[in-house]
Amino acid sequence: MNKETVLEEFARATEVPDEELDLSKTAFLIASMQYPDLDFEHEFGVLDSIAAGASRWITEDMEALQAVNALSRWLFDDLGFAGNHDDYYDPKNSYLNDLLDLRLGIPISLSLLYIEVGRRVGVPLVGIGMPGHFLVRHRDEESLFIDPFHKGILLSVDECRKRFHKMTNNSVPWEAGHLAPIRNRDFIARMLRNLKTIYVRKEDFIQVLWVMNMLVALLPDAAEERRDRGLIHHRLGSDTEALEDLRWFASTRHPGSKDEFLEKLIGDLMGLRGKQRST
Description:
By secondary structure, the chain is α+β, with helices and mostly antiparallel strands. The chain is 58% helix and 6% strand. The chain has twelve helices and six strands. The protein has helices at 3-14, 23-32, 40-54, 64-78, 96-102, 107-120, 157-167, 184-201, 205-218, 223-235, 239-252, 260-278; strands at 82-83, 104-105, 125-128, 135-138, 145-147, 153-155. The strands form two sheets. Strands 3-4-5-6 form a four-stranded antiparallel β-sheet. A two-stranded parallel ribbon has the order 1-2. The chain is globular, with a radius of gyration of 21 Å. The model has no long low-confidence stretch (mean pLDDT 93).
């Protein structure tokens, strides 16, 4: 699929109610922006095969703790999935097909794998969007947190809080809401924002733009994403598209707020468009 077709498919896949949003399908659509010839049937087959292996160790009568321990042993000890501590910002860590192939990922991609394999074998799991470090929780056990980036170790609420304070150097106050389950839509948005950050670091602004297109399709009312896409359009010389996004963003702001840089940029772009029309 070309990128325009992928974006159309992504928009259709994510315009459903949140509980119907298919995390693995959406993740493969994100990956197909980088891999246009991605074989979805093959990739789903790999996921199903991993789940079939896990089902040998997980039974319906297992308690939650037993089930997640069995799932973690299968994924991390037997199959060797692991967090990529050495090259954290490699974009391959964020693409589900690369994760299945290389068995290296970051917290959110490993969490998606954990949840999707769990779903296939009857272990209900939810994503926990703790700032700075994504986790997984058993749906029915509110104090049972799993860290897929560190081989599925189990964390208590207190251990999650300590890890959060360590990551933030005690500069950010702890809130109980940090351990609340995250919506599927917000799960995908966080994956895309990770990729956005990665490609900005690499100064690959063409890829940044396609990631931003997906974010805007996913969250059409997110003003900051529309602003950022406008700035990327401007950087790439697409001033008509930049003006459209930046004017949309400006229309959502509180009348009393001011951003002199954006106001000047919008004025410059409008002036440029006026000159083009007069020639």
